[in-house]
Amino acid sequence: MLLYLFTASFPCKKKGIALRLSLSVLALSVMVLFAGGCGSYNNASAPADELIFDRFQEMQISFDTSTDILPEIKKDEMGEYVSENQNSIASWGQKDDGEAIWMNAAVFGQDNNRLARKYAFVFEEKQSNFGLYGGTAGRGRVEMEYSLPGDFDDITYANEAERRKEIIITGINMFIGDIDPIRLDSDYVYSGAMLVKKAFSLMMYEIEQNPSKIAMLKEPRGLDFDFPTFGPARARMLVNDEYRVRVKIKIGKYTKDFENHPDVVEMDKFVRPNEMLTPQPQAQPAEEAETGGSNFLTDFFSNLFGGGGGEQPAQQQSAPEPQTGETPDVSTEIGEVENEQAAQQQEQTEAEAEPEPENEQTQAEADDQQTQQSEPAEAGNAQEENAEEQTQENASEQE
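RESULT FIELD:
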């Protein structure tokens, strides 16, 4: 059919010349289609996001140690490798000679060996079915979480925009410093690290061109910018009360409906204080609420005085517990009881330490002793009376 059309398009007296011209045009057309289209298509495919970023989500800054993370950071079924440094560890993988690259990295503090920073990224650059006519259809995603230096706010910034710019610069400098020893293990890791750095550079360029856009970083929709060869990009950055920073960048087809992605929505919880350090009080069961709350105080007093539920001293009985269904705060009552118990034990110890009288006299012995003391006195009085009588008799005889 094509041969007929081309032959009809170029009428010529010499049919041989027309035939050769038609075949040449047809061959040239086929070569252009294959050279610019399917010939450049590749099947590189990185693992699903949940297989890469689940480890990033599970790692807890300030809690996990290298012992906790080392067994979990590598997945052999994904063909990953491990690179270690003095205070960092990373697992990474690639497909189709670097067309797809991904990595998870953890950095630990030098003083306490606790997780201080964590990173994760994936980049996949894939040609479309129409090659040079359709460009590329890649994707990229970057996740970061790090703590700001303790003296970060000692510096005075002109405005909040300048402060946020410094937070971004601090984060990328930390990333480069942490990944630099690891990237030497592989050219793929180096390529991925450079793509992360480029994403931050493009984001900063967009902010420099329009400083007011930096306020969009904290919004669910994020800050939008362009990433060559990958397409549009969006970034979100939040800082919580503990001076921890979380950054999320999505590139290419990842940007579609960015603000409704579950992981983007989940970022809102990050700005709240760490709930894991201050667990919320649990509501009382309905049965306990009806009976006046927890029986913890009753059991405590029973064990303390050995009464087994008997009547307690008035000054040591607990106040009525609230009937609101909330767990009562018994820390104050317990502290008072423990103080009273300690005081009683101290008094008892002092009483036992005092020396007892060696010669304890009974009432009868005291009476006997008093009688014995009175007898010599009576004898003395009798002698005095006899002496007086004898003196009187002698006086009468002399007369």
